[in-house]
Write a structure and sequence with these properties.
Blueprint: H1 2-10, E1 15-19, H2 30-44, E2 51-55, H3 59-71
Parallel strand pairs: 1-2
Helix pairs in contact: 1-2, 2-3
Length: 76
């Protein structure tokens, strides 16, 4: 996530979207995946980004990402 955000910034992109990596068939803990993804995105976020999306494949995934983002003070 950090590398992709840094590359998007260098490319002067205004928006970027990510899949909710690690939340599919492999059964990586969804709350942990949310924490890792959001922290990586926040670490590299800059004012140039108007929108950053995370595409969730299930309601459980969406809820975990939403809870974590709210805990970090982010906007859903």
């Amino acid at each position: 996530f950090r590398s992709a955000m840094a590359l998007a910034e260098r490319m002067k992109l205004k928006s970027i979207a990510f899949p909710a990596l690690g939340t599919g068939k492999k059964k990586f803990p969804v709350p942990r995946a949310a924490r890792i993804a959001l922290q990586g995105i926040i670490d590299r976020a800059s004012p140039q980004f108007e929108e950053v999306r995370i595409i969730c494949n299930r309601d459980e995934t969406y809820e975990a990402f939403t809870e974590r983002l709210k805990a970090l003070g982010g906007k859903v």
